[in-house]
Automatic annotation (TrEMBL):
The keyword Kinase does not apply. Belongs to the UPF0749 family. It comes from the Bacteria. This is DUF881 domain-containing protein. It comes from Planococcus shixiaomingii.
Amino acid sequence: MKKSQQNSRSKFSKSIVFSLVFLVLGFMLSYSYSLSKSQEAEGDFTGGAFFEQEERYRKELIEQQERNKELREELEEKQTAVQTFEQSFSEGESHNTDYAKEAEALRRVLGLLPVEGSGLTVTLQDSEYDPNSVNPNDYIVHESHIFQVINELYISGAEAVSINGQRIHANSRIVCTGPVITVDGVQYPAPFTISAIGKPDVLASSMQLAGGVLDQLVNDSVVVTLDEKQIISMPAFLTEL
């Protein structure tokens, strides 16, 4: 009798163990299946959905650029029409001639109209690599050097200034990123040519003052070249270059 009870208990214990084993195996299989489905869904999202979103953004950017170009062309046409009207108005009304000239001069200073005239170009170039220099920034042109030149030119009476042919204005953003600079979103590698319209002799003399901008640039290992130009042409800063 006792032996029969022991056998019965042993079978019952084994059945409980097998039940627990099958339960754990079922849970593991279910979890593994759910995990694989989740990874497939994630792969689908990071694949197709990501590239669809990127393509949509690219199309929107192209459309916006085309719209900006159309607006710039429309603005240039209206500015030309206003300039023509002012010129004809000044010819018919002599007492308003000064106002028309002042308005045109103001637009030129603000960069709303292209300008042309004599002036000075200042070229800044990186110096040759010095193997004894620990810091490579010691022999490249930085935005601080460009700002020094621009400020000196404006103080000396420059009417308009451009960098590598791009007209700048009061709110222009100039940032140095390694060996290149970014001017209002457009990148330029060295050398950097800063052109200024004004009296060439006055601008050059101001740059070459003892202890002035030119001496400071040379001390910073920047290669500087000055050239008094007879004619310098600059576009309006809203014109696409």
